[in-house]
Amino acid sequence: MRVAVLSSGGKDSAAAWWWATCRGWDVTHLVTVRITGGDSWMFQVPGTHLVEHQARLADIPWLEVETKGVQEEEINDLEKALAQLKIDGVVSGALRSDYQKSRIERMAQRLNIKSWTPLWHQQSEAHMRGLIENKFEVFITGVSCEGLGKEWIGRTLDAESLSELEELAKRFRFNVDGEGGEYETLVTGGPHLPGRLELFGEVHWDGVRGTYEITDVQAIA
Questions:
Q1: Please, which residues bridge with residue 217 across strands?
Q2: Model confidence over 160-203: pLDDT tens digits?
Q3: Which domains can be identified in the chain, with CATH numbers?
Q4: Rounded mean pLDDT of 89-104?
Q5: Are 56 and 219 in contact (CB under 8 A)?
Q6: What pTM did the predictor assign?
Q7: Which of 8, 10, 7, 16 is nearest to 188 (CA)?
């Protein structure tokens, strides 16, 4: 089975990628949708260019698809790009967005390929604990909700910090898996990669939300 994995570089994309490799499938491309406008109805906006470093580390071709993020047009731009690939299907890390999942499935039907969403409706805490147990290095690149302060930016999740995150999620009533945009991630290592990435940068914080501005990335085999 030849598949392309839709990847923003974050934890859910990484988990979906690993799922495909565990099935023995040939991941022919990592495909990243880069939003050139202000926002997107379907795709992550910040930091997606960093998928290139993951792809290079894994020796997998990286396909970047530019789109302005206009509703319905962005899925059409993705469809045009995937139509050029010789693949049997597409794998995505959608968790609970019916809007995203339904559009990817309809796109796959038009392309006469399969669509897989292996994380669909996974229980939030179980999903996050599974990532940590399977040694995914989940680096927090940004936070934007009450309860997550400056100290979380640039932090890599482990069992201890995940327990702390779970407590904060209960207290401040946000999604522990970040599905509501509470935080953004970049996976720097895990079972799907032959090595890991080391990130260098600085924290930007406005008192309410913040990001980790990455200035350099080094691959470690």
A1: 199
A2: 999 999 999 999 999 999 998 899 999 999 999 999 999 999 99
A3: 2-116 (3.40.50.620), 124-220 (3.90.1490.10)
A4: 94
A5: yes
A6: 0.94
A7: 10
Report which of 12, 6, 49, 3 is spatially closest to residue 179, judged by C-alpha positions. Answer: 12
| pLDDT above 70 for 45 | no
| Residues comprising the chain, all counted | 221
DSSP string computed for the chain: -EEEEE--SSHHHHHHHHHHHHTT-EEEEEEEEEE-SS--SSS--TTGGGHHHHHHHHT--EEEEEE---TTHHHHHHHHHHTTS--SEEE---SS-HHHHHHHHHHHHHHT-EEE-TTTT--HHHHHHHHHHTT-EEEEEEE-STT--GGGTTPBP-HHHHHHHHHHHHHHT--TT-TTSSEEEEEEE-TT-SSEEEEEEEEEE-SS-EEEEEEEEEEE-
**Encoding tokens for residue 163?**
């327990």
CA pair distance 186, 138, nearest whole angstrom: 6
For residue 180 the two structure tokens come to 């509501």
Tokens of 107: 């796109």
